[in-house]
Structures are given as structure tokens and as C-alpha cells.
Amino acid sequence: MDMGELSSTGEGAWLLNPKSPLPLTVVGADRVTAARLKDLLGRAEYWTQKVPEVALLIAQHNLQFKELDAFVAQHKRRFDADVEQRIASSSEWAAASAKDRADLRSEFEDAAEEALGIFVGRADLGLLLHGQPAAFADDDELLKLFNGDATLYSFYLSQLGRANPVVTVKAEDYGRKSWEQLVEKGMAQRGKDIPLQLLLEGLKLKELNDILADVVGKPLGRKAKAVEVAVALPDLHDRLSQRIAFREMFQALPPADLDVAGLVGSFAYASSVATVVQQTYFTAVQTLEAIEERKRDSGIYDAWEISNWEDPLPACAAAVCKKYDRLPAKRPPFHVGCNCRLACSFKD
User: Fold this and answer.
1) Vertex 345, ends 343 and 348: CA angle to 5°?
2) What is the per-residue DSSP string for 238-253?
3) Cα–Cα distance between 58 and 53 in angstroms, integer?
4) What percentage of residues in the chain have a pLDDT greater than 70?
5) Same domain for 184 and 61?
6) DSSP string computed for 271-286
7) Which pTM does this prediction carry?
8) Would you call 348 helix, strand, or coil by DSSP?
């Protein structure tokens, strides 16, 4: 579907889909980046599969969207006021500890978000309302290592911060290729490059007791103690070689001087922005396709219908989801993230 030509609206700002009922303007991009973004958003088939690539592009270039910023600014005022009102009315807040206050605030924010009555598809509205993380640009250099491979970057982030950093991945296992790619990029280490203590911590207690069978009188009941005894063995490497395949052992390496939680949070935010932008673009595509269908088959249909498949029906959709004798003046998307659908229909 032709959504209109990419056009500049000022320095670093590009209108992506001028024919849309709700056009999207990306800010902070050059023409090449804006064109790449438009291409990704325009692939209607299996469109949700493009969200990770869109998210990576947003994260790489710290992109913003004019319409999303306006949407957040509009609803954040009400959201923040609602949260503060709930805090002021709370009988628990004054005496609550810092941790309990954090838990209460989370509850109040969930309730305030629901009270807005705004549905943004599969995007995380709460993340969007909190705005761009302060460390959003900290991952710029790291992202260059992944060269546009959104799937690999997401995989890498999912491995950071594990309670047990060493993972056993057999040749046939899902993710083996991704691990090997991380090793090539220097973002993971493998086998004999992993410190022996970490390798031990990656084993189960039964496996550790097998290694120590001829050393301790009876199986040890605590993993920490088993690791402590095993790491002191002079022939530990040989013992491990008899029981594990070093090539199957992997450990993700956190990037130097970067906060892992901040990285994960930043990419989660980029993913929510990508999801809401993709939904907005796709909803507009469906609207224009319905109008084109009516032009082609003008003698078949005699009405229009706007619907939303969510159950229960989102509050923001309730007033518009109905049949129309004429093409509605206001058409989906009605707001960023809107997943209402305009379709050709028949009068009752």
C-alpha cells in the first residue's frame, strides 16, 4: 500500500507516511535511516516480526517520534496526577518502608494506567509513560557490534544477569549458533576460556558429587561446599574433561562500564516504541486498503464498520466501534498504537 513519499519536515525530522490518517514523524534520523525505517514499517506481511529490527534501529540512532511524544505528554499529566492522588489517599503510604512504597507505587501506576482507558496494542504503555530512560544513549557503541542483528542483540541481553552465568548448549540445541556468534564478537566466552570456578557453578550438585566421588566420604549436600572442594583439586581440569564437553559451555560477558539493568531497560523501552509505531503504521495501511477495496467494489458494499478485536473492548475504542452509512471523517488509527480496524460492510 502506498503511504506516500518520505519527506523532510525539518532538520533530522522525516514524515514517514503522509497519506495516513495519523502520519508518523521520526526525529533524529538522516535520510538513509528514515528510509530504512519506512521500509521496515511498510512490510505488512508478518509485520510483528519486524518489531525487533525496528527496535534496534530506534536504539542505534536514539530515534524519537513526534506523535508519540505528543501522545505521552497528553496522557502523562493525567497519569501522574492520578498516581499522586492515590498516594495522598493511601492509609499505608506514610508509614511504609522504601520497599513497600515501591510496591504501592507500582500498584497505583497500574490502576492509573487502566483508568486512562487507552489501549496501545502489544506495547507497554507504562514504559512509554515513564519516558525515555536516562541511559538510552549509553548502548550506542555496543549496538555497533551487532550490525543490525536485532535477534542476536535480544538474545545477548536475555543472557546477561543470569543467576548462573554458565550455560550448557549442545550442538543440536536452539541458540547454539547465537552463542557461537557472541563468542566471535567477543561478547561471550566458551569452554576452557571460562574460569574453572564458573564452570563448576554451572554444574548440578549431582554432577559435582560425581566429580568428587573418590575425594569425599559421602555426597555433599550444598552446592557451594562442593564447588569449594572441587576447585582446590590439582587435577580438576582432567576430572572435568571426563564428564563435560568444554565446547558446550558458554558464558555471556557483560560489556565494560555499562550497567546491565540499564541496557535491558533501554532496549525494552525501544521495543515498546517500536511496537506502538509499527501498530500505528499498520493500522493506517489497513484503513487505506479498505478504502481502496470499496473503490474497486463500489457496487457490493453499502456501509462501513469500525471494529476492534480486543476482549473486553478498550474504552478508547467503544465510542467509534460501530457501523457507518458513510465513510467516517475520522478513521483509524485514532491515536498512536490504535488497533481499531476500518472495513467495508453492509447495512443491517
Assistant:
1) 140
2) HHHHHH--GGGEEEEP
3) 9
4) 99
5) no
6) HHHHHHHHHHHHHHHH
7) 0.86
8) coil
